Amino acid sequence: MPLKHQGYFFDMDGILFDSMPWHAEAWEEVMKRHHLDFTARDCYLNEGRTGYDVIHEAITKRNASSERTISKEEIDAIYAEKCAAFQRYGKAAPIKNVACVLQYIHRFNKQIWIVTGSGQQSLFDELDNYFPNIFKRECMITAFDVTKGKPDAEPYLKAWERSGLPKEACCVIENAPLGILSAKRAGLYTIGVNTGILSKDDLLNAGADQVFNDMNELLTFLK
Ligand code: CA
Known about the structure:
This protein has ten helices and six strands; from the N terminus they run βαααααβαβαβαβαβα. By secondary structure, the chain is of the alpha/beta class. The chain folds into two domains: 143 residues, Rossmann fold (3-Layer(aba) Sandwich), CATH 3.40.50.1000; 68 residues, DNA polymerase, domain 1 (Orthogonal Bundle), CATH 1.10.150. A six-stranded parallel sheet has the order 3-2-1-4-5-6. It is globular, with a radius of gyration of 17 Å. Calcium ion binds next to loops.
């Protein structure tokens, strides 16, 4: 029988949007401006965490030898710069064939959620353009809804609680090790789709139950 799960929880960057290369560029640019040590590779390794957590860690490292403390306002300001830089890099296209996956699940009236550490309004604004009638605001957990981002279980636990479904009826679609870790900590079945620069083993080692190379392979599996 197709689609054995009742709820499908999609990560956003690297799953819905091919946005990771732009995120990497934007992070590098802004972190450099603030004399924070952060490379494109760090961006991929940290993928899934909230911007706040990423900046907080980088500043803590930079200030380790001083008494200087960090205000929330300082971190928010840097994240705002990062969001602005990301927007300047242009529009992120959808991940190839993810629209087919979403339409297929939607056709069977299953729940479709977004669970993301992102607070990138420019991407939220594109959801309806690229994936019309698929997503509802009440079925989204974003950076604005959680106190602890991925790899903590909170984002996926929150989505699961709000879905009202039993855990065994839920399926997560993730591309990043920390996102997979978050979903597995929440006790959910997790499929990795390897859309970035990491290896298949990176996703399996993070605990993914299945890993596919692209959305076509995922669609074949779901059918
Ligand atoms: Ca992701």
